Model the fold of this input.
Amino acid sequence: MTIDRRRALALFGLGGASAAGEAMAAAPRGLFAGRAAFLHGVASGDPLEDRVVLWTRITAEATTAPIAVRWDVATDPGFKAIVRQGQATAVAARDYTVKVDVTGLKPGTDYFYRFRYVRKGKPFGKAVGGRTRTLPKGQVRDVVLAVVSCALYPNGYFNAYDAIAKLPRVDAVLHLGDYIYEYGAAPGDYGMDSPTAKTRAPDPPRELLSLADYRRRHALYKTDPAQQAAHARAPWIVVWDDHETADNSWIGGAENHQPATEGDWAKRKAAGIKAYYEWMPIREPAAGTLPEACWRRFQFGDVATLLMTETRLTARTHQLDYGRDLAGADGKPDMAAFAAKLNDPDRRMMGQGQEQWLAREIDASMKAGTAWQVLGNQVVMARVVPPDLKATMGEAAYAALLSKLPDYVAKPVEESRGLSQAGLPGNLDAWDGYPADRARVHDIFKAYKARPIVLSGDSHAFWVNELWDDAGAARVAAEFGVTSVTSPGYGDYLPGVPLDTAYAARNKEVKFTDQAAKGFLLLTLEHGKATGELVAVSTILDPQYQTRVLKRFVVTPGDGGGVKALAAG
Done:
């Protein structure tokens, strides 16, 4: 829903209730003149044992004055047992978003919260609210996490979010990045060829560059009813990937940023980060720290230490590119020179400071006897070479496939086959493009005999992977890659092609993949085992859908660290 001036006037003056279901309320004197409404729902996030962040946004007609908002936290949905309450002020400098870090709560407890507009010093109007939960403390039987990534608004309905909102139990939702996309609404822009794009056009209808642009895109996303429901269901623990700023971003720029026509990268990056902190239920950065340094720890009793990492904006080295970096001086492929570039130990995903933090936290987790060390990570960590579809399908079937494909699909399929034959990775934007840094992470796992589960987003596909050390002698971790909420995957362009079989056949570390399904990962962590359920929605082209578990995998920890087994269960 695009909220332009005409739409806003209709909401405020003619409706009586907004699209988000909130009653209009007259403005209190001394703060602003006009009417206000909660159009963007609520959210909670970054839960700890004794606190949680609460979020909402209030929309007011034509004002720059502060707006008072009352918040309450209770142990019951009827708010008869209120345990914390207070008043916050929404201001234009933060786009009238409200974020409260509520303290003094009990561990492992469900809470209900609400926001109300304040009139003449008293709460007024119908409340907007949700449910949240603090982290458990001490001995815990199990933890249930829903994991999501990559929601492209025009490409389909957010049915995965709706399914999460309807789960009988979810302790927290992990979002691994690409919560929004920065692209515009022109023909040919990403997602605009979808049948749903006509009713789900991006706002603003241009590529995001300014702070106002990023704010408007976040605002659009949070009008989506499925997204609102998922936010209201449980606390979210979030991290950005690239599209919260621009595609394939790194410390010094992005593939989708052209300084000559789009200005200074640092300014654009700062705008994207500021809007993210305003519009997301993430705890504000500590004084004296860079906002980009968003890595942080969440302790789920003695069952899991969740470590959310940042691999985009603080230290990432510029991605290699086959077109730019593979050719030698004579224009022919120079494999030796490319390998030297690829394996350069100075190529970074994380900076030294974050690596040291990761080592300290894993060490502390193991010393505390925590069952699992879970990495919330943006991109796939496994070694993945593209499939050789000709080898999998046979020459005749492969030739028939190529003859039916448009050139823009047939060409990358052939290029991928060439990379497969050369043993080169298909995605240089993932950990495959930074093997020395990946080896350092593996070394941390091994040094502390950790029992890691790596969670990954970005790829628009489900993955279940075993991660091995460089020598191929030790299984150091399990990896669950979550597919997208709506963003298109490789399998969408090659329906009916045995991509999943071909990937598993070509790659030792890949145990299962689905390159077309959309949905989420449901991860249940217990002492002695971790169960990952790959939950798919039947469609993203209609808000009516069904869910099914594509596969269920069980991970058991190794006695001396790493993973003992990863098997379908």
